[in-house]
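Why Transcription factor MYB114-like isoform X2? Reviewers of the renewal asked for a concrete example.
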Amino acid sequence: MNTPMCASLGVRKGSWTEQEDFLLRNCIQKYGEGKWHLVPARAGLNRCRKSCRLRWLNYLRPHIKRGDFAPDEVDLILRLHKLLGNRWSLIAGRLPGRTANDVKNYWNTHFHKKFISWERQTQPLSN
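Here is what the prediction returned.
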């Protein structure tokens, strides 16, 4: 049976509390990013390493942009997706302050269905 690593460890799941965020921020400030297998113990968190890493990368890093995407960002996402496909980390790397998770979620929320419909209309019929 394939069970997720976090589930088999008996660690906390679900929403993060402000206290947990505080502990994770302090740990990263003290020890730096990386060595994620040590972070839960160092920070005093009952979370798995993957959960800590994703929380930091997608929500707590200091220079993450929040809010609506600017028109130039949207244009760049569209052009890069046409070039790179669903390689969200590469696309996000060209959008300062945006995470791959944010870009992927924005794409799936705003463009995915439109893009597939447009792609079907523009491809020639093959018989």
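The mean pLDDT is 86. This is the kind of structural detail the renewal will allow us to pursue systematically.
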